[in-house]
Design brief:
Elements (H helix, E strand, L loop, with lengths): L4 E13 L2 E7 L11 E7 L5 E12 L3 E7 L7 H7 L5 E8 L13 E6 L3 H13 L6 E7 L8 H9 L4 E7 L14 H7 L8 E6 L1 H13 L7 E5 L8
Parallel strand pairs: 7-8, 7-10, 8-9, 10-11
Antiparallel strand pairs: 1-2, 1-6, 2-5, 3-4, 3-6, 4-5
């Protein structure tokens, strides 16, 4: 199904933050999204104008559904409609899921280090969910940089997973405002070094966020001794970077 446009039914909506929500789409046939893939969404205006945007899949929902999680951009053509106006029962034109580089698959045995900035957590959350669904024994860590508590995507689920005695662990860095008792400040090299798996564990590393964030984090990891070939990156404005 990945190469053709299909009409998907909107079957559920869930607010994640004041400016983001998760949309569950049911496709017309069986679909499987590898963790980290994205779909294209096409909107057509009454005058025939079309806009296509890519959105990361946040969950695969067998046998025929998937979730995308969309953050509204104030000047966006597509995201304000998806976040503010789309309703259960509506339909969207969807192509995908696609993407083969920035993906995690259960057959991979290595520890996993995920690092996300803002809405860059979306494809990483798909990896966390797939890892848990597979009952995978390897450690998996998420380092999540976000502006404030109100900006945290998947808050309840992440808290629940972090409280569980599983291979998953979570660190949230708040850059603008933080809960009481938590420091406030941008993610920096010393904080990164404190909270990621060391290069001795030879983890697969996935980084998703704004370009400056991804470039800085990648550089710090290489400086810590992580092999560049073990670091996979995704930037806003590419796959999963949307408006």
């Amino acid at each position: 199904m990945s190469g053709a446009w299909n009409v998907a039914d909107v079957v559920a909506l869930e607010a994640e933050t004041p400016t983001a929500r998760t949309i569950r789409l049911r496709l017309p046939g069986p679909v499987h999204a590898a963790a980290g893939q994205h779909v294209d969404v096409r909107l057509t205006a009454p005058d025939g104008y079309q806009a296509v945007r890519s959105y990361s899949v946040s969950a695969s929902v067998p046998p025929d559904a998937l979730d995308i999680t969309v953050e509204e951009l104030p000047d966006g053509e597509v995201s304000p409609y998806l976040v503010r106006d789309l309703a259960v029962g509506d339909q969207l034109e969807v192509r995908g899921p696609v993407g083969g580089w920035f993906v995690w698959r259960p057959e991979e045995q290595s520890p996993v280090q995920l690092i996300g900035g803002g809405s860059g957590v979306v494809p990483l959350m798909a990896m966390v969910r797939a890892h848990r669904a597979a009952a995978h024994p390897a450690p998996i860590r998420l380092l999540y940089s976000v502006r404030s508590p109100d900006s945290v995507f998947f808050r309840r689920e992440l808290d629940s997973l972090a409280a569980d005695h599983s291979p998953f662990s979570l660190t949230v860095v708040y850059t603008r405002a933080a809960p009481e008792g938590h420091p406030v400040g941008r993610l920096d090299a010393p904080t990164l070094a404190e909270h990621v798996l060391g290069n001795g564990a030879d983890p697969l590393v996935y980084i998703c966020g704004a370009t400056a964030f991804v470039e800085a984090v990648s550089g710090w990891l290489v400086a810590l001794g992580h092999a560049p070939a073990r670091i996979k990156t995704e930037r806003y404005g590419g796959l999963g970077g949307t408006s």
